[in-house]
Amino acid sequence: MFSIKSLAFISIFLICSVGAIFLPHIGIYGYLADYCIGSSKQWWEAPFSGLGIRYSFTLASATIAGFVLQRNKLRFGFSIITIQEAFCLLFLLVMWMSYLGSDGTINRYVIVDHPTIKFTKVAIFALLMTHTITDRKKLSGLLWVFILCALALGLKSWDLPRRAYVSNRLEGIGGADFAESNFFASFMAAMLPLIGVQLLRSKKWIPRIICIISAAFTANAVVLCRSRGALVGIVMGSMAALVMAPKRFRKKIAIGLILGSMGGLYVADKQFLERISTIIVSQGQERDESAESRFRLWVAGAQMVFDKPFGIGVGNWYQTIGSYIPEYAGKDSHNTYVKCIAEMGVFGFLVFALVIYFSLTEIKRINRYSEYLPQDIQNDLKLFAFGIFITLAVILTCGLTITMIYTETVWILLMLPVCLRRTLENALLDHKENIQKNET
Asked: Model's pTM, two decimal places?
């Protein structure tokens, strides 16, 4: 007999799969939820494991079908391809050129997809998302999917027994990209600004309570991961929030940051504080081995760029690092940017830097043009822009100590400004149409 959770899961999956044919954004929500939670790894999926259902593939296929069938109803704003989307596609092209023009990857991606294959899928989903999530209601729904997934993962983290920890750190929570604690912590840290934005936008108590509970369990999960990189990301995001806060909400945001800091200190335990204390060392003190190894890896990455400015080839870091530091053979770079420039060369890194640049500058453009809209719409767009900017600040800072260049998390978040841009453009078109109607 199926459990309630199993029945709920399969029902939601079927609703999202069928719903995507008629409303493609439903498929986007379902795919994103499956990616975050990792449905196939959960106990409540076990009754259906024998059916061989590929949840993400099914949801993506249904969304593509819905996109084609409902293409005349979709609204792409002022242009079908934005500069960020163009650079995303260029990054994909550079990846394939790097892969085809370099030595083959040896004994690494046998069970899982090679980064080129994986990123091709990531790019397809990102473009589906940016062409489907194009108004305030759909964008708000996307953020709620993030928030509910963070809540579900936070609750699971809180409920896990100590035997599930590795070296006193939470491991193996969520989807495939979150298997390692630092990846999971960075994702959860990046969700905090989005939770805060939806809390500010919510006018009813039920969604407010959901946001507060989600924030508490999300922050607790970050603490359980003992991730220094995630904490640095949160600190950077908090500093950016103080600078970028919309004037209308500045006081509420400041109060929220204070309360959030107090809550974070409350849930912090001895192990977390001891690990975080190693971020900064006094003169004469030695860094721990983990931190010291990162510096050596980054120096080796710089040497790779000096030796091969066009890159060592996508996916080839693990088989190359041993040539520079023999005792670190097979070890990860622990830096998104170092791995990008080492594997894809200077040109690939430049393309990635431009994607980041246009993602961040898009926020300024959205804030400026939202002034032409009614106050309620303007407030919504400015809060969305603020939340997405802070989320990007968090995840990009985490990238300094965590390798996420080919993960969906980074690229989904980097493409959110495109969704917001099209939301703004469609709102401007609707506003213009309403003015014309009132004049006739």
From this structure: 0.92
